[in-house]
Structure formats: C-alpha cells, structure tokens
Design a protein that fits this description.
Elements lengths: L4 H13 L1 E10 L4 E9 L5 E9 L17 E8 L2 E7 L10 E5 L4 H7 L4 E6 L1 H13 L7 H7 L10 E3 L6 E5 L12 E6 L15 H16 L8 E6 L8 E6 L12 E3 H11 L3 H4 L2 E6 L3 H10 L1
Antiparallel strand pairs: 1-2, 2-3, 3-6, 4-5, 7-14, 8-9, 9-10, 10-12, 11-12, 11-13
Bound molecules: N7-methyl-guanosine-5'-monophosphate.
The site of N7-methyl-guanosine-5'-monophosphate has 11 residues, from loops.
Amino acid sequence: MSSGASSTGDAIAALLRRFTPLEVLNEDPSSKTAWLLGRIDGEDGASASAVVTVERPPFSLGGAGPGLFHGIALGEGEQNDIYSWATGFANSAALGPDLRVSVIYPATEKHISKHRRQQRRWVCETPQLYAQIVQPYVDAQPAARLRWVENILDKRVEAERIVYEDPDRETGFVILPDLKWDTADAASMYLVAIVHRRGIRSLRDLTAAHLPLLKNIRAKAAIAAQRYNVPADALRLYIHYQPSYYHLHVHITNVALESRGMSVDRAHLLDTVIANIEDIAPDYYQRATLSYVLGADSELWSRWTAHSG
Ligand code: G7M
C-alpha cells in the first residue's frame, strides 16, 4: 500500500468497511488499545484474516484556540459541588483525531498469535541454548517477514517519512517514525532506525565489528529527533531481544513515553550494548546469558518446551 496521506486513509477505510469482527484478541486499558481479529472479503470473493489495532491517540493541544469545545456532545455524567464529569464526543478537529487504526491483512497465524492475549513465560537463554533452540528458529524465518523492511530500505514505501538517512552500506541506516507513532505529539515520539546492512539478525550477532554502526546510530538519532524538537538528552534508544523482526533496528523514543516495548524483559539500552562490547568483551553478546519473556502460544516458546520436554 502506498503511503500518500488521505489516499492511504481512504484505502484503509474501504478495507475496514469489509471487515467482519470475529474475536477480541486483546485489550489494554492503560494504552487504550484493542486488537481485533476478523475476516475481510477480498475483491475476488475470497476472504482472509485481518488483525486490526484500534487505539485512542494522545491529545496534541499546542495550537488549541477558543473554539476547542464548540462541537462537543456529552452524555451521562455527574455534578458534585465544584466537580463535574461526563463522556461523549469532541467532534473537534482542534482536539486531533480520536482514533488510530492499523491493519495487518492478510494476517498470518503468527500475527494473530502475537496479538492474542496469552500467558507469558520467562526464559533464560545461554549461548548453548541460543545455538540449540533460537538460532534454528531465526534461520527458519520466512523472508516475507522482512518485506516491509526491504520496502523501506529500497524506498518503495514510507520513503517520504524518512527523517534521516546515512546511505553507507556498512554503517548507514534510515530513521523514520515507527508505525505506532502518528507524529502529532512529540511527547510520544517513537522513531525506528533500520540498518542498511543485511544479515545482522539480532543483538546476538553484534560484535566489535558493529561498533561504528551502533555509534553512528547513537550520534545521528539526535539529528532525527531535532525534527520534532526533542532534545538529544531526552532520547531513549534500545534494541529488543527477542525482536519481532530479525533485521537489526533500534527503537528511538522520547524519554517521556512509557511504552510496553521498553520493559526490562525485552529492551537493551543502546548505550549499554555499546559499552558492553567496547569495554567488556568484543564478543559479549555471543557469551552473554539473555533473559526474556515469550508468549505461551508463540512458536519460539513451543520450541523451548519441545527442547526441555
Ligand atoms: O520488536 P521489534 O524490535 O522487532 O520491533 C519492530 C518495530 O518495528 C515495532 O516498534 C513496530 O511497530 C515497527 N514496525 C513494524 N512494521 C511492520 C512497521 C512498518 O511497516 N513501518 C514502520 N515504520 N514501523 C514498523
């Protein structure tokens, strides 16, 4: 799908009109997000699964003027002394959009299982267990999982969203807004740096040979963030282990943003990664024991249980 502004919105809206919901996969009141599984009938009559994420975006009230609440329609509420409250609809462009949707269509079983509420399991991965369980899983990832990454690196999609690029094949990368961020609100800034170099699958592959690349991302993230007036000392940079996609990328967020992805069971701070490799051992991540949490319905967890069972 191309990324022109309203034409993309129109295309997604047309898709969603054909969406039949089947199951609420998950709901998270704290991030005001819900994940739905459904079917979408294709133009050829065949139907396929779709995962739709709906969330309430943060307010961006910087330019709010006197007409802010002119369209407001409120329902049931309460008044008590000087306190009153009600819920309803803003109907106001000044308050920003009230819905953000993202669609995965057609969705694979892996997409569906990733978004379905599930029990979580802790694993402690030694280098030996990496070699026995995880590496075969990473090697078996279908190339199609990285099509969106290749689309970005080859400028086929999201090209106009790139805020910084270093084109060097070894130490270069692109920085652009993560799909989770609509760019309206700098306090929730969420960018992703995707490296040009192919074949660095995860944290486990990083060695001293990659220090120039990692330091380059560290340095240039500040230039990208300037675009949104986020200062260099308000950035949180981290790498997920396990990632969802095995092509090295670095998450760059405003420190003000508290997102699920920054939790200790997944996020490895880029500064620490650089220091571990530079100051402790060039092969730190080939020797380290790494702990993380997996969904109990994930394929990787089933490989762990098959190995221990
Ligand atoms: O968990 P992991 O470290 O693999 O995170 C991948 C990141 O890439 C997540 O923060 C996703 O929101 C982001 N992402 C995933 N896709 C499919 C896209 C995409 O198509 N475009 C952009 N800009 N970000 C994406």
